[in-house]
Amino acid sequence: MKKVLSILALFIVFTTSDSCKKPYNGSKMSGINQDSLIYTNPVFEPILADPTVMKANDGWFYAYGTMDDWGDGKGAHLVPVIRSKNLVDWTYVKDAFLTKPAWKEKGGIWAPDIVQVNGKYYLYYAYSTWGDPNPGVGLAIADSAAGPFTDTGKLFLSKEADVPNSIDPFYLEANGKKYLFWGSYSDAPTQGTFGVELAEDGKSVLDITKKFKVAAGDFEAVMIQKKGEYYYFFGSKGGCCEGAKSTYNVRVGRSKNIQGPYLDKGGKDLKERGSGSVLLHGNDQYAGPGHNARLIADNAGTDWMLYHAIDKSKPNVPTGANRRVLMLDKVIWPNGWPEIVNSQPGLKSQKGPVFK
Predict the structure, then answer these.
(1) Residue 178 domain-assigned?
(2) How far apart are CA 40 and CA 328, in angstroms?
(3) Phi/psi at 197 (5° precision)
(4) Each residue of 85-127: pLDDT tens digit?
(5) How many CB atoms sit inside 10 A of residue 274's CB?
(6) CATH number of the domain that 320 lies in?
(7) What is the pTM of this model?
(8) Phi-psi map region of 11: left, alpha, beta (phi>0 left; psi -120 to 50 alpha)
């Protein structure tokens, strides 16, 4: 009888010890079995604004966000880095920068974009302050996705590019060429979202005078992704950072040419203000959903989109910074256009990505 009880005790310890150890990782925890992964938004908090994401060589997904003070007593995080195996359970790793880049006198490190170029991890970023008359775009490089990243300096300033509010960089390779897209809100004659070809090493612009315009100056947070025969433009409009009153929303257009013209569902060119078909807007719980990362396809071929939004019930951290949490929702493609259920952030528990 004692032998039976001992075996039973060992069985209980063995079967419960691992399942009870669920470390805090900033997200609402999901099941471990990938066939039944269930999650509820947000997937990371308190803040990961303007997210960018990639799968690194070590098998982990890494996401990076705008420099922000989380209210955790550590001051402003210089581009926070988090990682996950499934896009749902995220853990903070470190900050990408040890110190702020020195090529600009003041500003924050905003809206990074992570990619792999020539075997290295490239982090393009904006350097700006609110109302900055001359923001710019820089580049930092690391040997691993977790960093640390070494700054290589600026690619250009707004006045050098002749594009007001030159922020929100986005890198894309197409037809054997490397491109950088960027731009943000402005009413100036030279306003808009632009693209330009980069040098083969991705560290400099070939000729800034050969930039091309793809969208009007009421867009920002450009992300372009190829699917099928089209390049799809994703951009954000509205106010990103007014707490519960934020009006950010994501709009799309598409083109068969990387340089455009990008047209919305109604055939309107995105270079015209007021254009873009709405993909995602706020709801009763979340305000200002926007600035989405590249879409990630899971092993079942389903596309997933990470973006930030603000919970109206707790819109700020104690420091006053907007509490832009990380959100995840499925993207479907009826009739050749991306859609999210109800065009709103998901509120209920739902099946997550499949990675096995």
Answers:
(1) yes
(2) 9
(3) -80, 140
(4) 999 999 999 999 999 999 999 999 999 999 999 999 999 999 9
(5) 9
(6) 2.115.10.20
(7) 0.90
(8) alpha
